């Protein structure tokens, strides 16, 4: 599959002088040309003085495992994984971290002589953005998580570990939300948090301090069927999408919530991957600020 491997920007290890000792990483997806990961990781490398090269790699839809094998053969040290390959990354990993097992998906790969380690940094990225960048604690809060797909699964346990007073999962297909609750209940360490699954219609008389949209509704500009009364005073409304005002964000702002998109989560999950690979935790604040300044004004 080496001939089909499409690498955007930069050089492969075989095309650089070996005495430079540059370590190579990549983000794998399809499509992938839009990915901001190279910008983020090169910024981290500059901030921490790490000698790395980071590329975008588009894998064929039926060739993810072969693409990973090609990168390993070329000497890459690790990779991030994005749509639509997070489940396949989970399957090919020879070792999974607890975070990856909880999420059922992998977004970070570490290539070692002993095999491929799979991790998931999405949840820690979300929690760190909310608690450290935005400055809102999840502890003791009433949290609503919208969606029961892969994005929601990826952040579920890190949210619970932050000890909210309660977590309600809502989804158009209630059975999927109920299955998430059942899996939580099977873990003894999570019983101190009240976790429930509700249909959208069951939210009429409830209010939440933090509302997190983990659905892809923003991609199609779809409005979620949420009651306008769900936002408690001073509520935070967080959409895991970034780079645009989604209908969810506009709706939440209209009804008094403070609104944030997922830009900080994107950068924080990347910082966690960088730390896994390099053993150095980059300061994310200048990178977040760089992206904010680059966004067109409304």
Count of separate DSSP helical elements: 10
Taking strands numbered 1, 2, ... along the chain, how are they ordered across the largest sheet?
A: 1-3-2-4-6-7-5
The biggest sheet, with number of strands, parallel, antiparallel or mixed sense and barrel status, is: 7 strands, mixed
Helix content: 25-40%
User: Averaging pLDDT over every residue, what do you get?
Assistant: 90
- The ordered string of helix (H) and strand (E) elements is EEHEHEHEHEEHEHEHEEEHEHH
CATH names the topology of the largest domain as Rossmann fold
Question: Whole-Å distance between the termini?
Answer: 44 Å
Give the class-level CATH name of the largest domain: Alpha Beta
The geometry reads as globular
Low-pLDDT windows of residues: 8-19
Structure class: alpha/beta
**Assigned CATH architecture of the largest domain:** 3-Layer(aba) Sandwich
Summary, kept brief:
This protein has 298 residues and is of the alpha/beta class. The protein has helices at 37-48, 64-73, 86-92, 98-103, 122-133, 150-161, 174-185, 247-254, 263-278, 285-294; strands spanning 6-8, 23-29, 52-58, 78-81, 95-96, 108-112, 115-119, 142-146, 166-170, 194-198, 208-213, 231-239, 258-260.
Report on the structure:
The structure is a single chain. With 298 residues, the chain is of the alpha/beta class. The chain is 35% helix and 22% strand. The protein has helices at residues 37-48, 64-73, 86-92, 98-103, 122-133, 150-161, 174-185, 247-254, 263-278, 285-294, and strands at residues 6-8, 23-29, 52-58, 78-81, 95-96, 108-112, 115-119, 142-146, 166-170, 194-198, 208-213, 231-239, 258-260. It has a seven-stranded mixed sheet, sandwiched between helices. A six-stranded parallel sheet has the order 10-9-8-11-12-13, with helices on both faces. Helix 5 crosses helix 6 and helix 5 crosses helix 9 (263-278). The longest helix is centred in the last third of the chain and has 16 residues, at 263-278. The protein is globular.
């Amino acid at each position: 599959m080496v001939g089909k491997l499409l690498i955007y920007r930069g050089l492969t290890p075989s095309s650089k002088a070996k005495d430079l000792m540059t370590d190579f990483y990549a983000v794998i997806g399809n499509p992938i040309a839009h990915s901001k990961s190279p910008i983020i990781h090169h910024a981290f490398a500059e901030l921490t003085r790490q000698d790395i090269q980071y590329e975008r790699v588009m894998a064929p839809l039926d060739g993810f495992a072969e693409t990973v094998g090609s990168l390993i053969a070329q000497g890459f040290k690790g990779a991030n994984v994005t749509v639509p390959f997070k489940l396949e990354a989970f399957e090919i990993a020879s070792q999974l971290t607890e975070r990856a097992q909880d999420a059922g998906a992998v977004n970070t790969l570490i290539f070692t002589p002993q095999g491929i380690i799979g991790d998931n940094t999405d949840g820690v990225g979300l929690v760190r953005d909310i608690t450290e960048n935005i400055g809102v604690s999840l502890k003791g809060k009433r949290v609503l998580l919208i969606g029961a797909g892969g994005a929601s699964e990826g952040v579920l346990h890190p949210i619970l570990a932050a000890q909210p007073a309660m977590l309600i999962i809502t989804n158009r297909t209630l059975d999927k939300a109920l299955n998430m609750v059942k899996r939580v209940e099977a873990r003894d360490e999570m019983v101190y948090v009240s976790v429930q699954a509700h249909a959208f219609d069951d939210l009429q008389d409830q209010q939440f301090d933090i509302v997190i949209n983990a659905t892809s509704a923003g991609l199609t500009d779809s409005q979620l069927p949420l009651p306008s009364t769900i936002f408690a005073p001073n509520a935070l409304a967080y959409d895991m999408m970034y780079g645009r005002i989604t209908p969810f964000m506009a709706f939440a702002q209209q009804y008094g919530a403070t609104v944030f998109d997922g830009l900080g989560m994107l950068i924080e999950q990347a910082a966690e991957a960088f730390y896994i690979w390099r053993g150095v935790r980059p300061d994310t604040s200048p990178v977040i600020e760089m992206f904010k300044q680059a966004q067109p004004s409304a």
